[in-house]
Amino acid sequence: MFDFFFDIQKKYNVNIYVFCLIFFLSIIPFWLSFFKLISSLRKGDIKKIIFWTVTLGFVYFAPYLYIYLFGENFPFWFHFVFWGLIIVLIYTLIKKIANKLNAIKTDQGKNNWKDFFFWDLYSYPYNKLITFSTPHRELFNEVYQILNFEKDEYILDAGCGGGHLEDFFIRKGIGDAKIEAIDFSKKMLKDARTRCHGFPRINFNQLDLNKKLPYIDKSFDVIICISVLFAISSQEIFEEFYRILKSEGKLILVEPKPDFNGKKLWDPQKMGLKKLKYKAIKIYPLIPLIIFLNKIIDFKQRRDYYQQFSLNGLKEILDRIGFEIKITKLVLADQDWLILAIKKSII
């Protein structure tokens, strides 16, 4: 067996120790991928069959890939296999993206498919990162303390995201209250349904807050809207909230400050990462992605594609429509405003 390695060294002029290290490290992943592929074939899961086939091929050719990149005198079949794998991977990726975009265009129409695609993409790092966010848990607890589940029986969460607030409420207890949770993104809703699976008093629906909401007047005791208003193109949503909220009903808004500083929000989140220890390895690669996506949001706000609300601006809008401000306070590491407003009774 060792003659094989020395032959590799002589023939292709590579570091034999590095080649041996890659070779032996690939043995366990190879057999793991092999058995996963067999299991996927039995179940008929096409996505997993493709994934484990590609993984198996990559692991198998990993030692030879090292030779291809750093060695000499490699035969023609090295070129064929290497570039063949690259072409297959690129083709698969392009086809997957194209199918995703076509599905979004078909489902959502030509006008706003880019927004659907963006928020579906945003959902992946966001839903992973928020699970360990101490500032968000503190915010959810603030909202929970405002509610009275003996009186607040029907709640609308406008922009529920991945259902983290609902999950927090379930764990704390909501009595006999019912929650209508809506969001713009299919991917967000899919994650939310998975997170809150088996809890019948929460209903998830896909709705666009830029359009008239399909609820009758004075439907809800409470409306919660967290970090959503900036992405709504029209301020008519405030009037819709007023219309579907009962008299003396509560409107809870959480919205980023115009001078929002993501770094200040990120600093306390590091504590949550430290508690994850080795599990945090899965989280760290997502951080650059969400930073990049947040930069896109920031760019769109500067171009007036998204809105920016000051505290006084929100107060003026709510007062004009017929709300009475009860509470204003800073949350999420002092980077967002929380506003509690009550719908005034009409005499």
From TrEMBL:
Entries under CDD domains matching the protein: AdoMet_MTases
InterPro entries membership: Methyltranfer_dom (IPR025714), SAM-dependent_MTases_sf (IPR029063)
Residues annotated as transmembrane: 16-37, 49-70, 76-94
The keyword Membrane belongs to this UniProt entry's keyword annotation: yes
Signal sequence coordinates: none
SUPFAM superfamilies: S-adenosyl-L-methionine-dependent methyltransferases
Record-given protein name: Methyltransferase domain-containing protein
Organism for this UniProt entry: Candidatus Kerfeldbacteria bacterium CG08_land_8_20_14_0_20_40_16
Organism lineage: Bacteria, Candidatus Kerfeldiibacteriota
